Amino acid sequence: MTPELQTRLETLTQSHKIVVFMKGNKLMPQCGFSNNVVQILNSLGANYETVDVLEDWDIRQGIKEYSNWPTIPQVYINGQFVGGSDVLIQLYQEGQLAEMIQAAGVS
Q1: CA-CA-CA-CA dihedral for 28, 87, 47, 39, to nearest 10
Q2: Is the dihedral of CA 13, 52, 98, 91 positive or negative?
Q3: When comparing pLDDT for 22 and 102, which is higher?
Q4: Residue 31 in contact with residue 91, Cβ under 8 Å?
Q5: Domains of the chain listed by start with CATH number
Q6: DSSP the chain
Q7: 76 and 13 Cβ atoms separated by less than 8 Å
Q8: Nearest CA to 75 among 28, 11, 13?
Q9: Which of 8, 24, 39, 77 is most enclosed, with most CB atoms within 10 A?
């Protein structure tokens, strides 16, 4: 990963309380996994931003290396990687995601 891409990803993950790297955006998810994340965050009333990885190949590949996580979507809260769709579903079902969002002050 280039230093420039590293800086871009750090800026993106830290410039919003919650950011989701996904296929599409929160108004038009382009895959089922991204849609799952959007639906969960919306149901919790979270204020979040999205980055469409389909628009930028460097970000699409770079975010996987940055997080050491092989799949999209990826969710960051307060600059920290939380997980993908499967992890968010589990955290949501266990009530932990709502707690994380409240702690971040974005609901």
Answers
A1: 40
A2: negative
A3: 22
A4: no
A5: 3-104 (3.40.30.10)
A6: --HHHHHHHHHHHHSSSEEEEESEETTEESSHHHHHHHHHHHHTT---EEEEGGG-HHHHHHHHHHHT--SS-EEEETTEEEE-HHHHHHHHHTTHHHHHHHHHT--
A7: yes
A8: 13
A9: 77
Asked whether 34 and 23 are in contact (CB, 8 A), the reply is yes
Cα separations (Å) of 105 from 54, 99, 100? 29, 10, 9
Please report which confidence band the pLDDT of residue 39 belongs to, taking 50, 70 and 90 as the band edges. Answer: very high
β-pair partners for 12: none
pTM, two decimals, is 0.93
